[in-house]
Design a protein that fits this description.
CATH superfamily of the largest domain: DNA ligase/mRNA capping enzyme
Largest sheet: 5 strands, mixed
Number of helices: 25
Bound molecules: 2-(butylsulfanyl)adenosine
Number of strands: 22
Helix content: 25-40%
Structural class: alpha+beta
Length: 674
């Protein structure tokens, strides 16, 4: 090997170690040492090194988290030792009875310590590490056999692909780690917003969403979900000895597995019970769902002596809180307009204590759901805060009060008074007005961050400008002076001048980007570009009939109608006129070449037959976004798009660990916002 090759290998190994270290600081210790951008620099360097030298890529490199989907679905695998379940207790007394039984079985004068851990409401998994390397990850299944979902578990950044080195000590020959994969609640809320915005059904709770994400056939889809994990135990261990649960948690944590920082070791059962009760009101602040507290006898020797009954260990109990529903009065149904214009009904309740917190509002899903359950303003209703932290109205608590009537979605948007619409086949009502105040801030973010890509003006700046009332619409942005920007908190003269210059320069951005930035429903990058190239000017586009719009690839009757409606709206026309007067491009210039775009620098390969696109159309769409489309798969390939009856290219991608996209993922890639 040449000395250059040796130093490349060395640098790659060093980068991997650094990235693993910073991953650990971030995910396990929750104490990052470097900012995200510095982490990205390390990651990008490793990725470019590996792209230039495909021979040095290792399967456990942090760049290799997203692999190819399993060709034939998920294999069934036997667990090294069964994954059991827990007996539950719901009262302090039952918990104390259990502790008495434990003491009786062990001998009354033997000290017993307990480890308490939040019982995470997610999906149980087993992770097998051989000599420190993750070789297999599986779902719990029936406890004896689960499904091999290694490809999906690898995409979860909090799961180390390699255990952290312990100085000179060799990693254990074999360890089967047990843990719970879960969907953090902020990510879950965003996920459900996106589901609803895309006209799909929201997941009923974070547990379902976590379990569903693990069973996705395409790991690229799982990779997009912000899943995390808490490791809580070990099934089988060869090459190391552990004596207690507490030691096990420390052992796992030292090796890079994320354990719950709220775990506690207690010796008195009264303190155990107090803690379990106190947790009920803490659970709402956790950021993830828990459905109880797991209490385990700490000593493994004692655990073995206690044994189990019907597959449930005598050494552990799940403490679950009393039912989390209550009856209260539904005072009013409000309607909140989300950032995509979706109208969300919201229940205002007479405050009631449920599941350890006081609840005064709850989500209602949509008009159909409210009418199906016959939930009416003024009625007594049942409110539930079960596994979910977000309270729900289950239904009326009895007969309707006299004078109440079935609820209807308001005909006009509560914010802008535009007539609301409910597109065919969708359950949600929407405000069609793109200039609706609910969407102003998001439109601005989209404009500066993605569509016009304005340097030196980030989301923080936009938020400040918004809060100060200086910018409330796209035209406002172009009316700002450098002097006004300099007055903004955190801005000095130089940064204000730069931001001002970037805003002015953005007026040179091509028409297609401006169109994309206007947030016209179902007009993403590709459609915006096609519209700009096809019609040439905004005037021609505004005059276009539905038939003329439908001449464009990718525009069907629904989309054509949405586009025409958008341009027919008086307020939108004013917006276009104002932006045009301010100097933005509303005509296609000669230089609008399909070169730069959000996919610039990436390479795709298409194989098999796609349902909605011809090969040529798919290629043109990718190229319009700046991607290259090539005929053969290599390490440099960003992803392979696989249609029906794919050829050997799919297998080649699998071999090289190149991600594979199904047609639905490809559609999302083209139109992420539509
Ligand atoms: S210990 C014999 N610890 O709860 C089973 N389980 O009913 C020992 N769970 O499916 C399990 N958090 O996935 C344990 N800290 C924790 C847990 C936990 C969540 C889940 C687990 C299992 C169920 C047990």
């Amino acid at each position: 090997m040449s000395s250059e090759a040796v130093s490349t290998e060395r640098r790659a190994a060093e980068l991997r170690r650094l990235i693993e270290h910073h991953n650990y600081r971030y995910h396990v210790l929750d104490d990052p040492e470097i900012p995200d951008v510095a982490y990205d620099v390390l990651f990008d360097e490793l990725r470019s090194l590996e792209e230039a030298h495909p021979e040095i890529v290792s399967a456990d490199s942090p760049t290799q988290r997203v692999g190819a989907p399993p060709a034939e679905g998920f294999r069934k695998v036997d667990h090294h030792s069964p994954m059991g379940s827990l007996e539950k207790v719901t009262t302090r007394e039952a918990l104390e009875r259990w502790a008495d039984d434990v003491r009786k079985r062990l001998g009354t004068d033997e000290p017993v310590a307990y480890v308490l851990e939040p019982k995470i409401d997610g999906s149980a998994v087993s992770l097998v590490y051989e000599r420190g390397t993750l070789v297999r990850g599986a779902t719990r299944g029936d406890g004896e056999r689960g499904e091999d979902v290694t490809v999906n578990l690898r995409t979860i950044e909090a799961i180390p692909l390699r255990m952290l080195d312990q100085g000179s000590a060799a990693p254990p020959a074999l360890v089967e780690v047990r843990g719970e994969v879960y969907f953090p609640l902020d990510g879950f809320a965003r996920f459900n917003d996106a589901q609803v915005a895309a006209g799909r059904k929201p997941a009923p709770n974070a547990r379902n969403a976590a379990a569903g994400s693990l069973r996705q056939l395409n790991p690229a889809v799982t990779a997009e979900r912000p899943l995390s994990i808490f490791a809580y135990g070990i099934g089988v261990l060869e090459g190391a000895e552990l004596a207690t649960q507490w030691e096990t948690l420390e052992w796992l944590r030292a090796r890079g597995l994320r354990t719950n920082p709220s775990a506690e070791r207690l010796e008195a059962i009264a303190a155990v019970a107090d803690t379990c009760v106190a947790w009920e009101s803490r659970r709402a602040d956790l950021g993830y769902e828990i459905d109880g507290i797991v209490i385990k006898v700490d000593s493994f020797d004692q655990q073995r002596r206690l044994g189990s009954l019907h597959g449930r260990p005598r050494f552990a109990r799940a403490f679950k809180w009393a039912p989390t529903s209550a009856v209260t009065r539904l005072l009013k149904i409000h309607v909140r307009v989300g950032r995509t214009g979706v109208l969300n009904p919201l229940a205002e309740l007479e405050p009631v204590h449920v599941g350890g917190v006081t609840v005064s509002s709850a989500t209602l899903h949509n008009e159909d759901d409210i009418r199906r359950k016959d939930i009416r303003e003024g009625d007594l209703v049942i409110v539930q805060r079960a596994g979910d932290v977000i309270p729900q109205v289950v239904g009326p608590a009895g007969e309707h009060e006299s004078g109440t009537k079935p609820w209807r979605m308001p005909r006009r948007c509560p914010l802008c008074k535009a007539q609301v619409v409910r597109p065919d086949g969708e359950v949600m009502h929407r405000c069609p007005n793109r200039a609706c105040p609910s969407r102003g801030l998001e439109t601005l973010y989209h404009w500066v961050g993605s569509a016009l890509d304005i340097e030196n003006v980030g989301a923080n700046t936009i938020k400040k400008l918004w809060d100060e009332g200086m910018v409330r619409s796209l035209p406002d942005l172009y009316r700002l002076t450098a002097g006004q920007l300099a007055e903004l908190d955190g801005f000095a003269e130089i940064s204000a001048t730069r931001a001002f210059a970037s805003i002015q320069q953005s007026k040179e951005q091509p028409f297609s980007r401006v169109l994309f930035g206007l947030n016209i429903p179902k007009v993403g990058w590709v459609i915006a570009r096609s519209l700009a190239l096809h019609f040439g000017t905004v005037d021609a586009l505004m005059r276009a009939s539905l038939e003329q719009l439908e001449e464009i690839d990718g525009i069907g009757p629904d989309r054509a109608e949405l586009i025409a409606e958008w341009f027919a709206d008086g307020e939108n026309r004013v917006l276009v006129d104002e932006l045009r007067a301010l100097g933005l491009q509303f005509a296609t210039a000669q230089y609008e070449q399909p070169s730069a775009g959000p996919l610039s620098g990436s390479q795709y390969v298409i194989t098999g037959t796609l349902q909605a696109w011809s090969r040529e159309q798919a290629k043109a769409a990718l190229e319009a976004l700046g991607a290259k489309v090539t005929g053969s798969v290599s390490k440099r390939t960003t992803a392979v798009i696989v249609g029906e009856s794919p050829g050997s290219k799919a297998a080649k991608a699998d071999e090289l660990g190149v991600p594979v996209l199904a047609e639905a993922d490809f559609a999302r890639l083209l139109e992420p916002d539509a």
